[in-house]
């Protein structure tokens, strides 16, 4: 069964800290990995990663994919209280299915 | 999120009643997905569609049916609602470079 596993499950940091969130996967016909941020409502899209070793960056957030070791990391530098959220990782199957399967998320709390 | 609209936003059903949730998108995306989100369970895939007229089962399809008669609309039906279907339901669409979610439907079955 294909799984998407995120770690840690939860994390508490102080403003200004740098955090690294992990996502590992076991998917056949892997196509892409996606990161989302979820606050109180619907998840919002952050990144889609398809190629190994190419960093994607948006402000203080960055992410990279390692297709050999089957994992991705999401880095957040100089964290702010507004970064507090659940961060979700999802894997898109390729082939004939095109399923999009989510991990259970990492709950990040940034304290002032 | 702009471009993906879910209807209704809230609903309370009695056990055994039926209802349909509508997901409408105006971005011409081929892929559409229905998820349910429960505390501690994350987002679980119910059904999905890779194009007009096609549907497929996800991780937790039992008790639900779907249809995609038009490319822009993906409908999720509950034929006979059960309390176990109390959840927040999200629709998502996907392209080759980005993805969008609807704002969610909070469904309570009593």
Poorly predicted ranges of chain B? none
What is the 3D shape of chain A?
globular
Please indicate the percent range of residues of chain B in DSSP E strands (runs of 2 or more). over 45%
As a percent range, the share of helical residues of chain B equals under 10%
| Average pLDDT reading of chain A | 92
Helix content class of chain A:
under 10%
Shape of chain B: globular
* Largest interface (CB < 8 Å): A-B, 20 and 26 residues
Count helical runs of chain B: 0
Low-confidence stretches of chain A: none
How confident overall, as mean pLDDT of chain B? 93
Number of helices of chain A: 0
**Count of extended strands of chain A:** 11
Kindly provide the radius of gyration of chain B, computed on alpha-carbon positions and rounded to a whole number of angstroms.
13 Å
Query: Structural class of the secondary structure composition of chain A?
Result: mainly beta
What is the subunit organization of this protein? Answer: heterodimer
Beta-strand residue fraction of chain A: over 45%
The string of secondary-structure elements of chain A, in order, is EEEEEEEEEEE
Protein structure class of chain B: mainly beta
Return the string of H and E elements of chain B: EEEEEEEEEEE
Structural features:
heterodimer; A: mainly beta; 6-stranded mixed sheet; 0% helix; globular; B: mainly beta; 7-stranded mixed sheet
